[in-house]
Amino acid sequence: MDVRRLELLRELAERGSITEVARATHRTPSAVSQQLRVLEREAGLPLTEKAGRGIVLTDAGRALARSATDVAVAIEHAAALWDEFRNDPTGEVSLATFPTGGQMLLPGVVQRLDAIGGLTLHCSDRDPESDDFPALTADFDIVLAHSASSAATNWQSNEIAAVKLMTEPLDIALPPGHPLASKDLLDPEDLIGERWIGVPWGYPFERTIQNIAAAAGSPMNVVQRFGDTRVTEAFVAAGLGIAILPCYTAGGAYRSEIVLKNLRGVVAERHIFALMRPDRAERLAVRTVIDALRAEADAVVAANVDRNPPRVA
């Protein structure tokens, strides 16, 4: 069976429609359909069947798509070995990041890669719900994702390789004149009755707010929800509520207008991962970027050790 046609079957398994496969592979839908019909003849079994106006994979098709992933990993592994012999981690790597992750990590990563030379990193910002980060690996070599869970078990599978980069504490953000701003540490009970600037449903910080409510024994009053932390910071600085913000990137233009306080009694942190398709994770250029991400994440954490005391659980 032709490897390129196997890859089209794998794309269909991940993207769900001929139209999306055509878009991703820069083909026409008719060309994709034709190649899949040829693959069916090579396989000797039906690989797809009609479902409404579209098609879905048969059991044989799903099994062969999983095999296509194994084939792709083997091919990339062989290519990576050759690149290592040549000592040549060159090429282009695409990366998607959530906004504060890009703010925190990518300038330093690009500087590290520029020092190596020969490798180009193309970056884009995305900010999906936590469960939707893996889908981005279909279009990007590396996806920076964050989760309230340190295990990221929902992300690790045969189709996704997950590399832990760092853990970032989350703080309670208050305007300077707030009555709680004078306390060294905040307890969940302190936050009862406060107006919260929250995040959209499904975002990682939402779970932390729920955990605070559970520990306090009272629901939190969320009056606004924003995905962009810059908008959240503006509302907190204006005295319109309190919020959870990532410790290492909070403040920005409002650094003198926001007070950050540690929270005890609740684990408040986010875990940052790099997600990849397993075949792309084999590429030497991709592994070089992952090494730069790890080094930069370590540098960020080290730079913030003195500024931020250890968390109190």
UniProtKB/TrEMBL annotation:
InterPro entries: ArsR-like_HTH (IPR011991), LysR_HTH_N (IPR000847), LysR_subst-bd (IPR005119), WH-like_DNA-bd_sf (IPR036388), WH_DNA-bd_sf (IPR036390). The keyword Transcription applies. It comes from the Bacteria. Residues 1-58 form the HTH lysR-type domain. Belongs to the LysR transcriptional regulatory family. PANTHER family: LYSR SUBSTRATE-BINDING (PTHR30346:SF29), TRANSCRIPTIONAL DUAL REGULATOR HCAR-RELATED (PTHR30346). This is LysR family transcriptional regulator. It comes from Herbiconiux daphne.
